[in-house]
Hints:
Elements: E1 6-10, H1 15-30, E2 34-40, H2 41-46, H3 48-53, E3 58-62, H4 77-101, E4 108-112, H5 118-125, E5 128-133, H6 137-147, H7 174-177, H8 183-191, E6 201-204, H9 212-219, E7 225-226, H10 261-266, E8 273-277, H11 286-299, E9 302-306, E10 326-329, H12 334-339, E11 343-348, H13 352-360, E12 365-367, H14 374-384, E13 388-390, H15 401-412, H16 414-435, H17 440-456
Parallel strand pairs: 1-2, 1-4, 2-3, 4-5, 5-6, 6-7, 8-9, 8-11, 9-10, 11-12, 12-13
Bound molecules: uridine-5'-diphosphate (UDP).
Enzyme class: transferase
GO molecular function: quercetin 3-O-glucosyltransferase activity; quercetin 7-O-glucosyltransferase activity
Family: Belongs to the UDP-glycosyltransferase family.
Amino acid sequence: MELRAHVLAVPIPGQGHLTPMLQLCKQLVSKGLKVTVALTRFVSSTTLDQQKNQSQLNYNTISDGFDTGGYNDASSVENYFQRFEIAGTKTLTQLVKKQESLGHPIDCIIYDGHVPWALNVAKQFGILGAVYFTQPCAVDYIYYLVNRGLLSVPITSPCLIPGLPSMELRDIPTFVAKPEVYPGYFQVAISQFSNVDEADIVLVNTFYDLENEVIDAMSKYIPLLTIGPTVPLSYLDNQIDKNEDKDYGVNLFHSNASINIPHWLSTKPTGSVIYVSFGSMADLDEKQMEELAFGLKQSEFHFLWVVRESEQAKLPKEFVVETERGMIVNWCSQLDVLSSEAVGCFFTHGGWNSITEAMSLVVPMVVMPRWADQTTNAKFVEDVWRVGVRVNEDEDGFVTRDEIEKCIKGVMEKERSLELKESAMRWKELAKEALSVGGSSYNNIQAFVSQLTSSQA
Ligand code: UDP
């Protein structure tokens, strides 16, 4: 019989959700807990080698109902999450039983907010259920208010919510701002909060100083434990051994083996490269891709552009990238790229992990949000945290090449760049403080661990 508490983590199989879950799990292991991560069978089968390199975590599998092709095999987002609930409930139940029969009983299930049914499995076994919201508190709060009928949809602008800055429609998460465009995603986003009151613990991937007002506002409804940012600690210069915490671990995408990105960056002057990435899910249509390509070219800076394999056919045919000035790759180690001295600006879609990474590594941003939480994140980056600028769209909803050039040049201008870096440096220091002994996230992780350990006694 194990003496330390055993946590079973249930992430959803998107890179932006998986990475903060794995980081939290590693933190829990460093506190002496045993952690098993339940990957979907499809994700597990495609990442076996990487799992072996993450020896501090145990991996096991559950089914999302799409064992051979994963999310891409689903006919819609509704179809995906409906099947995940059915297959996931069954296989998660089996996994908990199996661990018990092997003498490693589970004490707590930590589950991504997008699979609220995992709480039913925890309750069925009388073990703790900890929901983990991997997006910023501002976005979680908006979804929560809509779920409780405290914020009506359609939203009227300006939207005034206590704890949040005044927001225009373009700042609201797109699933709530335009539910008619994303009916399935709207349901999934809002349903994260359907049973949150019954969860034993509510974890949020942010830190107190970054979002104090909205954290206080949301805490009036439900007690929150903020535990972020989940950027690997070595990048924040914290106390954990750098060799132990350098990487996120499991990547759902692969870099082009033939391209040596660190070498290419090392040949570029300090602060001269624009790093461009739209994360793991957002896509651009051909026209927008063309505007971006030529906006980058017009800016006349070096650029490293991540274009996932599934997006590459949309690159304009006439856009020839000379390897001297620009480089297009399928995927990269974003943390390493952002840490490179050569990078002077991050042109990003505004995914939550990308933003916390850029702040932690003090890289000024141009944010071009596409959907989901990115619009709200962009608002905070520009107006609240002041660590970057947001692009403007034209009347047809496109971001033109001239706008892209203007924003990049603005952020790369020496004085402006310094201002943005100074702000980012302040947030980085606060992030470090939050995660250091006695800091808000540190204390919350300790409180969580204590709850687990005492429930075991
Ligand atoms: N990422 C990466 N290499 C890339 C692009 C992205 O490692 O070429 C990582 C990035 O560091 C971040 C995650 O993928 O941790 C993307 O998460 P984010 O929340 O920024 O965006 P999402 O993919 O969820 O839209």
